[in-house]
Specification:
single chain; 334 residues; alpha+beta; 10-stranded antiparallel beta sheet; 16% helix
Length: 334
Amino acid sequence: MNGRHTVMLVVASLAFAVLVPGTAGAQGSDAPRTPWGAPDLQGVWDRQTLTPFQRPRELGDKAVFTEEEAAVFESRATAALDALDVRVAPRDSAENNETAQTIGNYNDFWFDAGATTVETRRTSLVIDPPDGRVPPLTAEAADKQAALVRSREGVNRHEPTPGGFVDDLGPGRYAVRCLVGFNTGPPLVPGGYNQNMQVFQTEDTVVLFNEMIHDARIVPIDGPGRLDDGIPQWLGSSRAHWEGDTLVIETTNFRGDTSFMNGLSDANLHLTERLTRSSETTLLYEVTVDDPTVWTQPWSYELPMKRIDGPLYEYACHEGNYGLYNILAGASEQ
């Protein structure tokens, strides 16, 4: 499934030099309410966007596109994504003797990268640090990443490290084993496809149900607090509380490295997620990432999600899935 990463890299590489600085728009507070008076966060929310996660370095301190610049960026990004389409790639045949360019990958029909940047026209989803980029790794994390790169030299994303098995299936091991979606977090990120989340809400609980890998996070709304005890979880342990019209979710107690940032984060990850119904059609998702063994400082990003009328569809990841068997069989043959 390397195509989804190609999509994100293409979008991130399309930013261009700009001249006129902009300003981010303020968020509104006119939100629907539940029968018990809380902001109503319920609905199906789509997080697709062309906005790069990190600001491309060539943009420097340019935080916001002008309207014209955003239109040009969207046009270029869409054209580049269209160029990746392999939906009509031919197969071997006696008539044309041609071979598909991409074998075993998804074609463009299945991807859902979006067609626009976020409404504020920011040049990155990362909002802190001000340069719009994820902070540097700690020395420990950098050494760990370098060792991983060395051990997997010449090995593609889903192949086992030579001599390895389950934990050595590469950065995408959780996704290819259908344990944790590559974009469902926590924290949520845009990317590729299945970018929808449905929110269910009662007076004392919120449920974040993701289309990808059909993961459901059931979060009690019982005041500030951290769940550091008990059995570590794939998705961590979460508690929520209200700060005005914003639902704040604190999450810790992860079982180890996660699917976030290609497995960079670890068991020390502490997330602060904020959900704000900023309008009838927008759910603002803000995240502060704090993992002191991985990044040199906490950092934050912001992702506006749009309400859609359609349902969530079942993502039966392992139904008829021969991927893992074939990966291991191929590695064994090698």
